[in-house]
Amino acid sequence: MASFQECCEQLKDGVINYNRDQVAKAAQEVVDRGYNAHEAVFDGMVAGMQVVGKYYEDQYYFVPEMLMCAQALYAGLDILKPHIPKKDFGVKGQVVIGVVQGDVHDIGKNIVKVMFEVAGFDVHDLGRDVPLDEFVKEQLKTDSDMVCLSAMMTTTMYGMREVIRKIKEKNPKCRIMIGGAPVTEDIAGKWGADGYATDANNALREAMRMLAALKEMYDQGKAG
Ligand code: B12
User: Fold this and answer.
1) For the domain bounded by 94-219, which CATH number is listed?
2) Which residue, by CA, sits nearest to atom 64 of ligand 1?
3) Which of 72, 165, 196, 223 could form a disulfide with 217 if both were Cys (CB 3.0 to 4.6 A apart)?
4) Ligand 1 center to residue 214 CA distance, Å?
């Protein structure tokens, strides 16, 4: 019988070696044994993807390997996602989320989305490589409280600045959070984002803080 630690090792190793079957089997084992699916995502698969990034930097892996690693990760995420326990933190909201134009890295965005969903947020997912104006349109259409922008490349992250500017012009009350590997708190502040987080767990925490503050403003009739 595999321990939780062993399952995480299998998940990590399966992502690194782009072995979808191994990842799916270990993910199923996590579910069958009632282990914590949330922790398995981070301690297993995300940890594996960090090693993949290192391999790519060292030119040991190239794009085809990265792609297969991503596919292996998704095979596990599909199995684990429905078993991440729902939590009611008492703060809920409507959120638009997507990866900005030119960028197809969507694993991080999808993990952030899972965290929002388990907390009971209403998530409008625009996907990846999203034309910048789509964020503005979707926010207005859904009257969402918050827009979350993801970018994984130094070249694509500049699109965020434009989206922030346009959304703030149309609806100053909307809260905007940005994230992804090249983004820093400093950049978020300079570009006028209301929030920033380094990972999906902190993204949820930050979103709840922002939405609670927004609700308080509305309650006091000061919004806008
Ligand atoms: C997997 C991968 C790919 C896969 C993506 C598959 C997919 N469906 O996502 C594929 C093969 C398609 C790919 C392609 C490319 N890639 Co790539 N890729 C990666 C890799 C190895 C892992 C990314 C990942 O999924 N990480 C795991 C997730 C869980 O972490 P994460 O994305 O950081 O997300 C977390 C946080 O950032 C945060 N977060 C993310 N989004 C948001 C949003 C908000 C609002 C918040 C609050 C938080 C938040 O929370 C997440 C979860 O905890 C990285 C290396 C790395 N170190 O990141 C390179 C990397 C991102 N890729 C890179 C490059 C260069 C490319 C290519 C240009 C390569 C090429 N020559 O073609 C293409 C670009 C394609 C394009 N137009 O987008 C570079 C980017 C360099 C840069 N700084 O600009 C990296 C950093 C590799 C490197 N070291 O050079 N890639």
Assistant:
1) 3.40.50.280
2) 153
3) 223
4) 31
